[in-house]
Amino acid sequence: MCTKHRSGDVRTDDKPSRRPVTFTVPVKCYIMGEARYIFHAEWYDPVSATVKKFQLSFFPRDKSVEMYDLRAQRLFLKRLPVEGVEERDLYLGNTIVVLSRQLKLIDYADATTREQIGSRRQRTFAMVKPDAVHRLGEVVDVIQSHNFEISQMKMVQLDKSQAAAFYREHEGRPFFTPLLDYITSGPVVAMELITTDAVKRWRELLGPTDAEAARQDAPETVRARFGQDKQSNAAHGSDSDISATREIEFFFPSTRVSDVMVPQTTASFANSTCCIIKPHAIANGNMGDIMKAIKDEGFEISALQMFRMDKVQAEEFLEVYKGVVPEYPGMIQQLVSGPSLAMEITSIHGADTPTKFREFVGPSDPVVARELRPHSLRARFGEDKVKNAVHCSDLPEDGPLEVEYFFKILQ
């Protein structure tokens, strides 16, 4: 049976609205029963400085999207295939890009979507501890290879009061003080992971708490491969949904919190350069490999954080390329198409770090890079001039400035 989107009714919850809709554009007929997922989404309109609310429908069969303007009570975008939007991107809190608009998914719009997506897109918290941060690229590679999506990530330095708040359930136990000393001994990397049964699956991938026992009983687990002992055991994972929610909120607060309780960035802002792993490289599962390659080349990742840039931020950051390179519009679109990982890079080269790292990144065109510098990052992970895996600071003086943009201004 074909209808005009359920006879013109608008689904804003489990029941169709009784208010009739007058469509201003032709509406396709859909086969009754075709799978679709429906969300409430928000888009910040920079022109009017208002937040606009939509009902967004995604049709997995052809990866098409339809949008309904909830305030105006009319169809905003008729069904249209959208490049870059995948079923895996559909989870609450995520931002997807539809025709250059960044839409944040804030709620499920019907029970079917809640049941089907909610069960498959569970989130959990993961933390790489101080003893394993130097092997972060390898840990990230294991995470991505087991079909976890890293939706948030940042490197921070905890102080004693913050660590005590995070591990408050262990207060009073004999190991509490040594635990605080250990977890504040160096930077940690906090992550939000998303997949089916995320809490259970991440705990299984972590392995036994004691790294020595893990090497005996579960040698392929994270703690067996990267941990040292029962305390220095490489990584942490939430033990329940409730713990995951609390721990994610601790490192990635959804509302403004006291600066005292916000873990500090590890960026040094000196003798450094900026590197950004672009959204396409993250989506392709190259993030861990790129981080490993940077480490193997003798550079250090001294700070990192995942960002979802909007168009205004992308244009501001890449303004120097406007009118200079023909790929500029595509560069903007690539940066806003998904999460990027911004990193501060340091090395033994000191003030020469930006120049040395720029050489390692390679020419902007991956085709040229593969000819001239086959071991460079863009030669190994790039696709074309826009999807060339990473951005890096072009000039030595730009390095600290670009690091400041991400780790100070965008904070």
Round the Cα radius of gyration to an integer and report it. Answer: 23 Å
**Integer average pLDDT:** 89
Instruction: Going across the biggest sheet, name each strand in turn.
Output: 4-3-2-1-6-5
Share of helix among residues?
25-40%
First-residue to last-residue Cα separation: 51 Å
The strand count comes to 15
Identify the overall geometry.
Answer: globular
**Which consecutive residue ranges, at least 5 long each, have pLDDT under 50?**
1-31
Q: Major sheet: size, sense and barrel closure?
A: 6 strands, antiparallel
- DSSP strand (E) fraction? 15-25%
Total number of helices: 16
Structural class: alpha+beta
Could you give a short description of this structure?
The protein is 32% helix and 24% strand.
Account of the 3D structure:
The model is unreliable at about 1-30 (pLDDT under 50). Strand 2 and strand 3 form a beta hairpin. The longest helix is centred in the last third of the chain and has 12 residues, at about 400-410. Strands 4-3-2-1-6-5 form a six-stranded antiparallel sheet. A five-stranded antiparallel sheet has the order 10-7-9-8-11, with helices on both faces. It contains 16 helices and 15 strands. It is globular, with a radius of gyration of 23 Å. It has helices at about 110-120, 135-145, 160-165, 175-185, 200-205, 210-215, 220-225, 240-250, 280-285, 285-295, 310-315, 330-335, 355-360, 365-370, 375-380, 400-410, and strands at about 35-45, 50-60, 65-70, 75-80, 95-100, 100-110, 120-130, 150-155, 190-195, 235, 265, 275, 300-305, 340-345, 390. The protein is about 30% helix and about 25% strand. The chain has about 400 residues and is an alpha+beta fold.
